[in-house]
Amino acid sequence: MTTELFFVQLINGIQYGLLLFLIASGLTLVFGVMGILNLAHGSMYMVGAYLVWYFVTVTGSFTVSAVISAIIALTLGILIERVLIQRLYNRNHLDQVLLTIGMIFVFNSLQSILFGNDPYGVAVPGALGGGIPFTDNSSYPIYRIFAALICVAIAGALYYVVRSTRLGMLIRAGESNREMVEALGVNIKSLYTIVFAIGVMLAAVSGIIAAPMRSIVPGMGESVLITCFVVVVIGGMGSITGAFVGALLVGLISTFSSVLMPSMSNMIIYIFMILVLLVKPQGLFAK
Amino acid sequence: MNKFKTYFVMLVLGYFMSMATNTALASSDIKIGVMQPLSGVYAGPGQSGLDGFLLALKPYTNNSHQNSIEVITLDTEAKPARAPELATSLLMQHKADFIFGPAHSGVAMGMIKVLRGKDTVMIIPNAGAAAATGSLCSPNIFRTSFSSWQPSYPMGKVALDKGYKDVYLISWNYGMGRESLEAFEESFEAGGGNVVKKVLMPFPSTNFQPHISDIAAQDPDAVFVFFAGGGAAKFVKDYDAMGLRGKIPLLGSGFLTEGTLEAQGEAAEGVLTTLHYAEQLDVPKNLEFRETFHTEYGHYPDIYAVQGYDAGQAIIKTINLLDGDVSDKQAVINTMEKLTINSPRGDFTFSRAHNPVQNIYLREVKNGVNVVASVAAEALEDPARGCKL
């Protein structure tokens, strides 16, 4: 591999890793704060992508569609938490797994009924089309750079909210001692609703951002879910920083391994995960 | 414990009763079992193939015709593990005369395991696995679609004719992907072409960007790929996004641009593919079929519908030639293998291994349509390696 190609792949890997972080952040946030293992997280990613595709075909504007889709996702998150998840706080993880797996089937069927099974694509928004010259014969798409920047911005915002705001303080308090927070007069119920809805919205937003870069197909949620879990497990369940580092590691490893040894690339991520777990059974940034 | 006994007895009784009613209700002369994926990721092609099939059968499935046909539809969900069980039920319980399906090659392998050499005729409307009409071929197995070899083999010669000497190959590491790349290599290397690199990605990974960067670095004369469905849509978009469209020609097995053009948009312009069909193919039967299908279903047919329709035609023609008597399976096979199918893709016949002998067209994407540029190979017959028929 030449030095030039090495740097090209480095950028590819970072860009892929940043998107993985965005998808995984909601999953790890919800697990860290609420102890809920949301297997339907990938479905929320799919919901985001399908919604933005649908609204782009209706309105023609990517920005408008992205905002509408994100709001719908937030509402959906509140609804799901209030109607379904709330009943499971005192139950064990297996019940949560059962419910959220059921939700995967429901969302997949809804997708099939509402939008059909053909692959769809969203055009890159006009202002972000084209690419900047990159190597002799290839260019780097501007939209992908923009997407990476959005991912960095959201990562920064999440970090800021959790570290330095009152909501973040409550979230951290709720993580370490739920009963005490309740005893101090904080409405933990609505705090959980907010956190869950934000988690759903993060998944949907990553689906929205990814939509112009990938094809919108049935089953797209499940395909990211597994990678997402690998990221979260490597980083440590519940840790946002862990998800960030884990996502970048997985992005880089999967990029380089798929070029250097394509037939083994899928396996290598899992081998890496096993190695991490052997050394740090709770993940890199476990609390 | 007593409870369980009661349940068990009821279950057994129920089973026999359902068998009894089944035989009592069996008034139709001919039974056709359908095994298509009607839910899950393959539901699109599965439903489309079935729609085409039922369109060909339509005049015969109502009771007014002398031979009424009963269709028993099972959903394979494109799960190979379930295939043997479903095929067994169609064969043993329903005693199907014909079995139509499947779309997915893995499911086809599971069905063939059960149906090979049995007293029913299996007719495959899509699954392209070479083995179905190759090493696992059987007198009672027919296919109206293609073998994985057929759409890709002619592209090797097309590439040479265009003056491409060094070609980069990439696909998924699964049956159809491997077989497609091998078929391309076979004709391309025989004509003196050089394969720069051959990449087989794990299925169904769509992280194409690192590979497209690698293609840019290798700078070959052209790239040949096999991808289908959502993966095809994404590959073509990524290839364009990285600025390679128009610089390094993109060639593919026709599935790269089948049912995906809308998703690919502008990015697909200029992509060259080879396939046994094109929606705009200027054949009278094609124009007629497209309109009939549109009237029936409200949308235009795709390649899967054509393949399903031809399977239906093959069955109907055979039944008519035998005056409705399909009890002698050897006679059914002898009749069917001699048919010429008047297909929307142009007439085709069956090879000794029961795979279509058909034209392969070179198509170029222009304004979002696969435009036929030429006939890349006329009456191309799959070599049917390993078939002793």
Automatic annotation (TrEMBL), chain A:
Keywords: Amino-acid transport, Cell membrane, Membrane, Transmembrane, Transmembrane helix, Transport. InterPro entries: ABC_transp_permease, BCAA_transport_permease. The chain crosses the membrane at residues 16-40, 52-85, 97-115, 142-162, 190-212, 224-252, 259-279. It comes from the Bacteria. GO terms for cellular component: plasma membrane. It is a multi-pass membrane protein. GO terms for biological process: amino acid transport. One of its GO terms (molecular function) is transmembrane transporter activity. It is found in: Cell inner membrane. Pfam families: BPD_transp_2. Belongs to the binding-protein-dependent transport system permease family. LivHM subfamily. PANTHER family: ABC TRANSPORTER ATP-BINDING PROTEIN, BRANCHED-CHAIN AMINO ACID TRANSPORT SYSTEM PERMEASE PROTEIN LIVH. This is Inner-membrane translocator. It comes from Marinobacter algicola DG893. The lineage of its organism: Bacteria, Pseudomonadati, Pseudomonadota, Gammaproteobacteria, Pseudomonadales.
UniProtKB/TrEMBL annotation, chain B:
The keyword Zinc does not apply. It comes from Marinobacter salarius. InterPro entries: BCAA_transport (IPR051010), Leu-bd (IPR028081), Peripla_BP_I (IPR028082). Transmembrane segments: none annotated. Residues 1-26 form the signal peptide. This is Periplasmic binding protein. Residues 30-368 form the Leucine-binding protein domain. Keywords: Signal. Belongs to the leucine-binding protein family.
